[in-house]
Design the sequence.
């Protein structure tokens, strides 16, 4: 393989000036292949293939001001599928006139292009292909193409963009185009084309990255696997616990059939448990990280892998917490719609009439429910805010302080308010022995364990002596080392001084 000439780190390409969306996006008409209004000219680009991807690519290239030559095995039949400004011709003809050629055909048909080897000499081939499985072949498609055409320069790119994104414009889809090649100049040329089309080129280094780039579109929510399994695990545990308490216990002890509770009531008591515990799991790794930093007196010691992984998945865990909370809100609103609820209500009314009781108003219960619902709504509102601001488009519009204020401070407030919501729900049930079914405590008492640990830890960390030490550690101070440090004072001004580990 040719020697690697590019840096293999993920590096945002900044070769080109101007906004990345400088070119107008395709209008409504252009999605139907009519881009005749765009000025042709500029660089001539070839496209091999006349399928979905080739068509979308040609439309977008034409709209971005490129002269497009489409190479097809059957140009006559395919010409009507392309915009009038694109020239549809035989493969050899298209390849002859263009320096950069997008190979928009599947890997298994690459060998059929070998007849074109002579006309392809010295050209840049852009491999846009994807596989059907992760690590399907020994070498990447781009490396395979390069091995078939050693006299060409192959650049991997555009495979993470779908035909739909190409048609609708980068504004409606993924804006990033990952590019790699062993030839810097060829990579720069393709990056310029991507930029002119309204995409953001990202330099992924040399050709050995092609395999990784080809795997990206095939990965199914890689960052979500652990959080989803965590949420499912918690759901199954709490669901089983609630099922035992709400359905199995009355059946065994009183021969009462409460199976009807399973689809809504049991699910609805499980969802807030999952949501609440998941929310606390967003903040627990931060607490553990702070404990580790305080214990070792440095921020330069690597966290264990599991903690690192946990810290990286906080966003997904938080979003799943919000998802469960939103479902809980909808389920709760639907509770009065159930037949069982109406029958029980009527039964209570009849009993009351038989007993000649005029009112069943319990002041304490009324207040409990008012507060419980109110703090629940506030908690859901805050969780919605956290979820919205974690979206990349919103997060990018916030500066670091705004982002950390919302995600860290307001997130912690959401946890405290959720705790109030849980406490007002439970009220005095923890002290009522009838609530201990099969000696199992009410579910809400279990859910309080982790969140309360986090809240107490956060309160302890906010004590001036601990907060001060943590702040110093996070600014580079290390136990056992004599360093100069600069710290903000209580008034927000910075004070400087010298200290040693013993201070
Ligand atoms: P497609 O609709 O099946 O088109 C493939 C084209 O390959 C055909 O139209 C055909 O055009 C051409 N071709 C050349 N030699 C061929 C041969 N021997 N046998 C069959 N066809 C041959 O596929 P596509 O969806 O456009 O995908 C094309 C490439 O783009 C693939 O590598 C795919 O992985 C990649 N890609 C596609 C998307 C997407 O959203 N569709 C996204 C990213 C990457 P002629 O008959 O005119 O020669």
Sequence:
């Amino acid at each position: 393989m040719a020697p690697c000439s590019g840096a293999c780190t993920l590096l945002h390409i900044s070769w080109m000036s101007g906004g990345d969306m400088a070119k107008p996006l395709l209008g409504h008409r252009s999605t139907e292949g009519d881009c005749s209004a765009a000025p042709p000219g500029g660089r001539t680009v070839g496209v091999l293939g006349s399928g979905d991807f080739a068509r979308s690519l040609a439309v977008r290239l034409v709209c971005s001001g490129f002269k497009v030559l489409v190479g097809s095995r059957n140009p006559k039949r395919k010409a009507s599928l392309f915009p009038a400004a694109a020239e549809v011709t035989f493969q050899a003809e298209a390849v002859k006139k263009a320096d950069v050629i997008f190979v928009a055909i599947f890997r298994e048909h690459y060998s059929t292009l070998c007849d074109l080897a002579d006309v392809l000499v010295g050209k840049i081939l852009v491999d846009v292909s994807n596989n059907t499985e992760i690590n399907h072949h020994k070498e990447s498609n781009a490396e395979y193409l390069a091995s078939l055409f050693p006299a060409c320069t192959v650049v991997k790119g555009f495979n993470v963009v779908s035909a739909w994104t190409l048609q609708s414009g980068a504004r409606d889809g993924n804006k990033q185009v990952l590019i790699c090649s062993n030839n810097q100049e060829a990579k720069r040329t393709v990056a310029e084309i991507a930029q002119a089309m309204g995409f953001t080129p990202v330099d992924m280094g040399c050709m050995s990255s092609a395999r990784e780039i080809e795997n990206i579109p095939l990965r199914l929510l890689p960052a979500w696997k652990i959080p989803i399994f965590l949420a499912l695990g918690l759901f199954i545990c709490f669901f089983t616990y609630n099922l035992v308490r709400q359905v199995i216990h009355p059946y065994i002890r009183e021969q009462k059939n409460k199976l009807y509770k399973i689809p809504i009531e049991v699910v609805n008591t499980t969802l807030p448990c999952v949501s609440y515990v998941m929310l606390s799991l967003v903040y627990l790794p931060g607490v553990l990280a702070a404990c580790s930093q305080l214990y070792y007196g440095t921020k330069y010691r690597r966290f264990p892998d599991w903690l690192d992984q946990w810290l990286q998945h906080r966003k997904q865990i938080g979003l799943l917490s919000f998802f469960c909370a939103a479902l809980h809100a909808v389920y709760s609103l639907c509770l009065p719609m159930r037949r069982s609820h109406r029958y029980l209500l009527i039964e209570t009314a009849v009993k009351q009439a038989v007993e000649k009781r005029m009112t069943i108003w319990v002041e304490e219960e009324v207040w409990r429910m008012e507060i419980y619902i109110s703090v629940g709504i506030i908690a859901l509102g805050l969780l919605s805010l956290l979820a919205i601001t974690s979206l990349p488009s919103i997060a990018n519009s916030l500066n670091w302080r705004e982002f950390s204020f919302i995600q860290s401070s307001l997130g912690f407030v959401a946890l405290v308010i959720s705790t109030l919501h849980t406490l007002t729900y439970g009220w005095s049930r923890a002290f009522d022995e009838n609530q201990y079914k099969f000696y199992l405590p009410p579910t809400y008492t279990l859910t309080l364990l982790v969140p309360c640990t986090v809240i107490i830890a956060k309160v302890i960390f906010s004590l001036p002596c601990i907060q001060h030490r943590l702040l110093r550690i996070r600014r580079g101070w290390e136990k056992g080392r004599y360093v100069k440090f600069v710290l903000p004072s209580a008034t927000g001004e910075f004070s400087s001084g010298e200290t040693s580990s013993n201070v």
